Amino acid sequence: GAVVSQHPSWVICKSGTSVKIECRSLDFQATTMFWYRQFPKQSLMLMATSNEGSKATYEQGVEKDKFLINHASLTLSTLTVTSAHPEDSSFYICSAIRPGLAGGRVNEQFFGPGTRLTVL
Amino acid sequence: AQKITQTQPGMFVQEKEAVTLDCTYDTSDQSYGLFWYKQPSSGEMIFLIYQGSYDEQNATEGRYSLNFQKARKSANLVISASQLGDSAMYFCAMREPSGGGADGLTFGKGTHLIIQP
Question: What is the pLDDT of residues B31-55, one digit of tens each?
Answer without folding.
Answer: 899 999 999 999 999 999 999 999 9
